[in-house]
Amino acid sequence: MTTTSSGFAVRRYSPERGAWGRLTARDSLLRRLDWPLLGASLTLSAIGALLVWSATRNRSELNEGDPYYFLIRHLLNTGIGLALMVGTIWLGHRTLRGAVPMLYGLSILLTALVLTPLGTTINGAHAWIQIGAGFTLQPSEFTKITMILGMSMLLAAQVDAGDRPHPDHRTVLQALGVAALPMAVIMLMPDLGSVMVMVVIALGVLMASGASNRWLIGLVGAGTSGALLVWQLKLLDEYQINRFAAFANPQLDPSGVGYNTNQARIAIGSGGLWGTGLFNGTQTTGQFVPEQQTDFVFSVAGEELGFAGGLLIILLLGVVLWRACRIAHNTTELYGTVVAAGIIAWFAFQAFENIGMTLGIMPVAGLPLPFVSYGGTSMFAVWIAVGLLQSIKVQRPLSA
C-alpha cells in the first residue's frame, strides 16, 4: 500500500491483484467527494430546469415554437457544467494554480473583446460576445473564477511556503490590482451587477487570507466613495439609474422601471404557502413578469411552488454554502481556504441579490440565481467553482 501526494491510498500493481490498485484510487476519490454539496447543487439545477420550462413553454417568441427548447438547453448546460466540474477535479486546484496567470490573462482578453464590435447588448448591458447563431458568451462569469484564483495565489504564496504568518502589505496591494483590472474593464460595459459581485469576492478573499483589518476597512471605504463618485459624475447608464430609483421608490413608475419588481412580487404573493402548482401560475402563464427564466426565475418558484418551494431553494443554497465553509475550514493550506472563501462570497452575495431583487429588498442588478437561472456561461462558471471546491476537499492530506 502506498499513499500518493494527493493523499489517495493506492495499492501497487501485481499480477495477483491486477487492476485492483487503480480501482482503489478511483474508489478513494469517490468516497472523498463532498456528496451533500454535489447533491444540493444537482437538485438546484433540476428545480431550475422545471422553473425555466414553466416560464418559457408558452413563450413562442422566445422558444422558436418548441415548448421544450429552454428545458433541453438548460439540461444541456447543466451536463456541460458537470463535465467541466469533473475536468476541474481531475486537473486539481493545485495544478490550476500554476496556470493561473495564463487563465487570468485569457479571461481579461475575452472580457475586453466585449467592448469591440464582437460584443452584443442584452437587456441594456453590453456584456456578451455573440458566437454563431443563438449562442452568446458572458466572459465576466469566468473572470470571477480567475480573479479568485489570481488573488488567492498571491495572498497564499508566502504563507503556504512558511515565510510569513499572513500576507504583507505589498502582496495585498498586488492582489487588489488583480481584482481592480477586470472590474475596470467590466465597468466600461457597463455591468454594475458583476462589479458588485467582484467587490464582495475581493472582501471575502482578503478576510480569509488573514490580511490586516485596515485593508478591509479601507476597501469598504474606497468602494463607498467610488460608488458615490460614479453617481455624482453620472457614469451610470440611464437604465441603471432608473433601477436604483425604482428600488428607492417602488411606486415611482409602476408601469415602467418598477414594472418588473412589482409583477414579481405579485407573482410571489399569489403563491401562498404551497403555490398554485407547477405550470399553473397565472402571472407566469400570462407572461406578466419579464425575464422569468433568468433574472426573475425565483418569482416562478414563489408563485407555482409557494413559500415552501422558495424556502426549499434557499435551504439548498444554504447547504451549498455550508459545505463550502466546511471545505474552507478543513483544508490545511491557505490557498485552498482562500479559493473556497472567494466562492462562498460569490455564491452568497449573488443568491441574496437575485432573490432580494425579486422580493423588492435589493435593486435590480441583472444577476442570475446560481444553478437555477437559465444561462450557459453562468451555469458553466458555477459548476467549475463546485469542481474547485471538490478538488480542495479530495486533495487535502488524509491526516487533515
Walk me through what this model shows:
Helix 6 runs antiparallel to helix 7, helix 6 (139-160) packs parallel to helix 8 and helix 13 (297-304) packs across helix 14. Strands 3-4-5 form a 3-stranded antiparallel beta sheet, with no helix packed on it. It has a two-stranded antiparallel sheet with strand order 1-2. A hairpin with a 5-residue loop joins strand 4 and strand 5. The chain has 400 residues and is mostly helical. 67% of the residues lie in helices and 4% in strands. It has 16 helices and 5 strands.
What's the helix and strand layout?
Blueprint (H helix, E strand, L loop, with lengths): L1 E2 L5 E2 L9 H13 L2 H22 L3 H4 L5 H23 L1 H21 L5 E4 L2 E6 L5 E2 L1 H22 L8 H19 L4 H18 L3 H20 L5 H11 L10 H13 L10 H4 L11 H8 L1 H25 L3 H26 L16 H19 L6
Antiparallel strand pairs: 1-2, 3-4, 4-5
Salient structural properties:
400 residues, 67% helix, two-stranded antiparallel sheet, single chain, mainly alpha, three-stranded antiparallel beta sheet
State the low-pLDDT regions, or none.
Answer: 1-23
- Distance N terminus to C terminus? 19 Å
Largest sheet: 3 strands, antiparallel
The oligomerization state is single chain
Tally of strands: 5
How would the global form be characterised? globular
What class do helices, strands and sheet pairing give? mainly alpha
Mean pLDDT: 84
Total DSSP helices: 16
Rg, nearest Å: 22 Å
Characterize this entry briefly.
By secondary structure, the protein is mainly alpha-helical. The protein is 67% helix and 4% strand. The protein starts with a strand and ends in a 6-residue tail after the last helix.
